[in-house]
Amino acid sequence: MSYRLTVRSVAEADIAEVAQWYENERTGLGIEFISEVRRVVHNAKANPFLYPVISRHPAVHRALTNRFPYRVFYVVRRNMVIVFAVLHVKRSDDAWQQRT
């Protein structure tokens, strides 16, 4: 089955904010962060059940980035992968739970 991808605006804002922070730390690092998040999101779109379910109602999946300490949260609905948060690993789970 082929899945469509939706990245909610709040998740896009997460990515942009973090990328800007990394870019301010070192030129090019923000772009590297975006590339890593895209890789994870692409993997989730290609195989939505690759990453573990961390909450059952709704079934929320969590994917970890490799190089950066961030988590990508998404749900699978019919033929769609919906990314709703990209958060630092030290952020409380309350941060993504408020978005589902």
> Percent range for helical residues?
25-40%
Helix segment tally: 3
Number of strands: 5
Identify the CATH architecture: 2-Layer Sandwich
Secondary-structure topology with pairs:
Blueprint: E1 4-7, H1 9-25, H2 29-46, E2 53-55, E3 60-64, E4 70-77, E5 80-88, H3 94-97
Parallel strand pairs: 1-5
Antiparallel strand pairs: 2-3, 3-4, 4-5
Helix pairs in contact: 1-2
Report on the structure:
- By secondary structure, the chain is of the alpha+beta class.
- It has a single domain (about 5-95), classed as RelE-like (YaeB-like fold, 2-Layer Sandwich), CATH 3.30.2310.
- It contains 3 helices and 5 strands, in the order βααββββα.
- A 5-stranded mixed beta sheet has the order 1-5-4-3-2.
- Strand 3 and strand 4 form a beta hairpin.
- Helix 1 (about 10-25) runs antiparallel to helix 2 (about 30-45).
- It is globular, with a radius of gyration of 13 Å.
- The mean pLDDT is about 95.
Task: Quickly describe the structure.
The chain has 100 residues and is an alpha+beta fold.
Structure characteristics:
single chain; alpha+beta; 5-stranded mixed sheet; 5 strands; 39% helix
